[in-house]
Amino acid sequence: MDARFVHVSRQAPSEILRLSPVLAETVARWSADRQSAAVVIRHQRPYILLGPKDRRLPHLNSAVRWLNDQGYPVFMRIGGGSAVLLDEQCLSFAVSQPCHDFTVWEANFRSMSQGVIDGLRGLGINCDFGRAVGSYCEGPYDLVSDGRKIAGIAQAIRGGFALVSGMLLIRQDPLATTRLLQQFYSRAGSDLILDPNAVTALTRLPQMSELTVEQVEEGLYRGFAQHFTLHSQELSPEEVALAQQLMRKRQLTG
């Protein structure tokens, strides 16, 4: 299957990196309009992404202001899931395709994420779908290795597209991240208790301590290339304008 490939590298212009929280959604809208698949691999500057359930937290606004004071912009995702931290030690991915059928939800997770699994296997990392109980943003279709979460994956079906997106934890400190998100939930009035031992980074896996973000980036490309014929295409000026609008719509300021 042919697919558009959008790559936002670490060296991308700052104005593009700033739009990273909404670029997957932006490209997914292109998938719906063009009736074509797309793959996105992207870097980002640090930010916090929240999920639909987080909107109901009793003290959400004050907790968001606290995150802002720590230097983290906060955005609401369009798919499922809950709070995560994305930063330079992670690598984000997304696959979108035309879709109006909610009954293919499970099949979408498996088929659209397979390139990630294959890419990691090419690097010597075995993983599969699973639930790491107690992990932040816990879900049944996260990627786990040796029982611990190494990637969070979420899905949205809307506007004529399916979007399966996530992030690989490459060098991010799982203890510090869990501690930050635990403080957020406590300040927001949640009784959720997170288990920092349920999450790990790729570099903490056996024999992976020297793994770089760039190696994972190349591995992801090779993994997706097993399932798609990838055609590189940069964001159009119209897409950049749309992403700027979505940034204003999705950002929370408390």
Q: Overview of this structure, please?
A:
This protein is of the alpha+beta class and 254 residues long. The chain has a single domain, classed as Bira Bifunctional Protein, Domain 2 (BirA Bifunctional Protein, domain 2), CATH 3.30.930. 35% of the residues lie in helices and 26% in strands. It has helices spanning 14-17, 20-34, 60-69, 105-122, 174-187, 213-225, 237-250, and strands spanning 2-8, 37-42, 47-50, 74-76, 84-86, 90-98, 128-130, 142-145, 148-158, 161-169, 229-232, 251-252. The strands form 2 sheets. An 8-stranded mixed β-sheet has the order 7-8-9-10-6-2-1-11, with helices on both faces. A 4-stranded mixed β-sheet has the order 5-3-4-12. The mean pLDDT is 96.
Features:
7 helices; 12 strands; 4-stranded mixed beta sheet; 8-stranded mixed beta sheet; BirA Bifunctional Protein, domain 2; alpha+beta; 26% strand; 35% helix; 254 residues
